Amino acid sequence: MNISPHFTLAEATITSQRNPATGQRYDNQPDNDQDLATIRRTADKMEAIRELFGNRPVIVNSWYRNTEVNKAVGGVPDSQHKLGEAVDFNIKGLSHDDVVSYLRGKMVELGIDQLILEPTWVHVSFRTSRAGGVPRNQYLDLSKRG
After folding, report:
1. What is the mean pLDDT of the chain?
2. Sign of the CA dihedral with 103 first, then 108, 112, and 113 last
3. Which domain holds residue 24?
4. Does residue 3 lie within any of the structural domains?
5. pTM above 0.85, yes or no
6. How are beta strands 138-141 and 114-117 bridged, if at all?
7. Which of 29, 72, 82, 123 could be cross-linked to 116 through a Cys-Cys bond (beta carbons 3.0 to 4.6 Å apart)?
8. pLDDT digits (tens, 9 = 90+) for 11-43
């Protein structure tokens, strides 16, 4: 099911996490309709990011985590991934540094709450009214950790 012109619900809910008891991947469907609505709003924001980079494909590593998956990955209870507000991604053909350098100048315009340069992807989040509504416009460089 498409949630925007270039993103599907399957992309937004993909997880590699497996239930240790069964070995099966967790079912990472949204916990409720409010989460689905937030995922759709985030997809609209990701469409804007995609356009900024000439409509290059956005490769999603992690987006939404329902309660069960969030717990399995050790996520904090108030994780923006759990709300559907955060996406860890790469843009095909571009370095993480290039993506972050460009997006840093567009944080206010795009309504970015957090922009994080991670070792293997870029993390971006957008605050909805569920999480206080006002973006922090926070940038972190965690690329050297680990």
Report:
1. 91
2. positive
3. 9-141
4. no
5. yes
6. parallel
7. 123
8. 999 888 888 888 888 889 998 999 999 999 999
